Structures are given as C-alpha cells and as structure tokens.
Amino acid sequence: VDDSVMQLLLEKASQAVRMQPDGRPSDEEVAFHAARAISLLSANRLNQKKIVQYGGLPTMYQLARQPDTDIQAEAATVIANVTSSSWEAQQRVAADDVVQLLL
C-alpha cells in the first residue's frame, strides 16, 4: 500500500484511542475499522516494514489494551504478523515490555 495510506490509517487508529480533551471516550468504531484495515495490510511483508517504520507498534499496543475484544484481536494480529518475519520487530516488542499484553 502507498506510504501515505499507511500513515493515514496509523494516524486514525492513534487518534481513535486517545481520550478527547473534554474527557469523552475513544472512538471504538474508528479504532476497529482502522485496526482491521491495518491487520489486513499487515499480511504483506512490505506493509509490515511500513507499520514499524511509521511507528505503528505503539499504536497497536494501545489498541490491544482497548476493552473491545474485536479491536484487541485486530491489533494482536498486526503485532503477530509484523513480528513473524522480523527479528528486529520481535526485539522491539520485547524491549517495549508488552509481551505480557499478547499472552
């Protein structure tokens, strides 16, 4: 996928899990659809590299912590796909101390 599309999806996912200034909760519908799109794209190795390159792993950690189990599953799929083919990504997940999040 084009770099700008990946960046947009990651930004939308990140925005969806942030609390609004007025204290409103995150937007679960946007979070799910962004996570789902990124999950589908993460099956491709080039896209996996883009997810890491554009800082997508921390966003996936945030999504995996959401109460909605569908969002959790999509985020976990992205993390699994990204780490399945990259030793560097595996080390990053371990260094970010989020392995327990995936168990």
Automatic annotation (TrEMBL):
This is Protein HGH1 homolog. It comes from Haptolina ericina. The lineage of its organism: Eukaryota, Haptista, Haptophyta, Prymnesiophyceae, Prymnesiales.
